[in-house]
């Protein structure tokens, strides 16, 4: 091993700036305060988003209940109308005097029921489409609002 010979200065003689221990503490405090403020903002946004989502779900469930009742009422009305038509048809069949009249009454009933069933299906279909739109609207609106807020924040 070789030794380095020559003049060397000690560290004590070298000029160094004075170390101020309060500066790092202030910097750490500033960073911590910024982090705390950002956390508060994030929590506020999260809380607001959760409330909006909860309201949207409540509205959706209420709408689902209402539309479910409407669909049920429509189905019951259709079943009642079909049952009444069936009883009326049976009364007409009892009064039949000949096989040709029986066939005539039966064919007329079948045609009328086919038309009535098609009409009932159209009404039920439009009711179901409206119900689907009504039920999904609050969630869709909340989702769109959240997307707008995200775009605005970015």
From TrEMBL:
Region (Disordered): 1-28
Polar residues: compositionally biased ranges: 1-13
Domain Phasin: 50-142
Family annotation (Pfam families): Phasin_2 (PF09361)
InterPro entries attached to this UniProt entry: Phasin (IPR018968), Phasin_subfam-2 (IPR010234)
Entry protein name: Phasin
Species: Mesorhizobium amorphae CCNWGS0123
